[in-house]
């Protein structure tokens, strides 16, 4: 099945089709992880995107039953240099190609992923399509240029109802903006009684669940597209301890008056170095985001920067000066990726204890 990749700037690559035989249109991004393709491609934060995998061989250990970050992947397509045709692993249930067919996602193999990645780095992310090799390229380009950016990605990937994951410990409400299952898993491993709620749940309903803390999850797209979520976070600040991750990090910043902006090509990979300003400690982190907090906008808020990206200086962590709330742009659940940032869940747990004991405000004021 011969397919081709067409970008909105007119660049075209011919290759072999994998996965679904349908045409696929989306925002083309690149991911630098050397392993963990199952976790990466099932991450809801890739909603509406076609993911270029920079590692040259994808699918060599197949797809297993357990390493999913979502059971309903939201990506639009995948681009690889080589898709393994004879995968091998004792936990494997199906091949990479079979899995893509099962979930209805189109892919293309046999293309120069290095060139695609370099083009995105130089020109920024752009819209693209995986189509049959006889498709009229100008018609595809015209359709790409006429396509409006997605604005309801969070609505599509968030849970539609409240559900509980009963535990014996402290109660945490996890707001699902496109939550990775790894976040829920780590909270449950700490013994929390976790209640997951949809992205548009009101602060009144959340506080009515009597949480000891609230986690703002990761998710896709532009935080400006979900003003109702921003308003909810604004109401929660000072009422209950908050821990934001990725999109949740951006929403906390916006709720405090900061602004966010789209990055040229984003951070997507499992080897991003982050410096903690207080200690100088470097953590290697897993990341997946196309928007970031505007650093200058933090000056007018009650937030301070706690972490920065070593490569480009972007804001990677913030904390509220007067309320129990902090957030990071990277993924402490590390699915897939290094586990350097796992301690952040313990920091959140300590903050809950401090608030319960009446000591947190004394420490931050």
Automatic annotation (TrEMBL):
The protein's annotated pathway? Pyrimidine metabolism; UMP biosynthesis via de novo pathway; (S)-dihydroorotate from bicarbonate: step 1/3; Amino-acid biosynthesis; L-arginine biosynthesis; carbamoyl phosphate from bicarbonate: step 1/1
Which GO terms of the molecular function aspect are on file? ATP binding; carbamoyl-phosphate synthase (glutamine-hydrolyzing) activity; glutaminase activity
Residue ranges annotated for the Carbamoyl-phosphate synthase small subunit N-terminal domain, each copy included: 1-131
Q: Where is this region: CPSase?
A: 1-170
Cite the entry's keywords alphabetically: Amino-acid biosynthesis, Arginine biosynthesis, ATP-binding, Glutamine amidotransferase, Ligase, Nucleotide-binding, Pyrimidine biosynthesis
Query: CDD domains, alphabetically?
Result: GATase1_CPSase
Q: Where is the active site?
A: 246 (nucleophile), 331, 333
**Catalysed transformations (reactions):** L-glutamine + H2O = L-glutamate + NH4(+); hydrogencarbonate + L-glutamine + 2 ATP + H2O = carbamoyl phosphate + L-glutamate + 2 ADP + phosphate + 2 H(+)
What EC number(s) does its UniProt record assign? 6.3.5.5
Which PROSITE patterns does the entry link to? GATASE_TYPE_1 (PS51273)
The UniProt record lists the keyword DNA-binding: no
SUPFAM superfamilies, per the entry: Carbamoyl phosphate synthetase, small subunit N-terminal domain, Class I glutamine amidotransferase-like
Role according to the record: Small subunit of the glutamine-dependent carbamoyl phosphate synthetase (CPSase). CPSase catalyzes the formation of carbamoyl phosphate from the ammonia moiety of glutamine, carbonate, and phosphate donated by ATP, constituting the first step of 2 biosynthetic pathways, one leading to arginine and/or urea and the other to pyrimidine nucleotides. The small subunit (glutamine amidotransferase) binds and cleaves glutamine to supply the large subunit with the substrate ammonia.
- UniProt similarity note: Belongs to the CarA family.
Recorded protein name is: Carbamoyl phosphate synthase small chain
What organism is recorded for this protein?
Answer: Bacillus selenitireducens (strain ATCC 700615 / DSM 15326 / MLS10)
Q: What taxonomic lineage is listed for the species of origin?
A: Bacteria, Bacillati, Bacillota, Bacilli, Bacillales
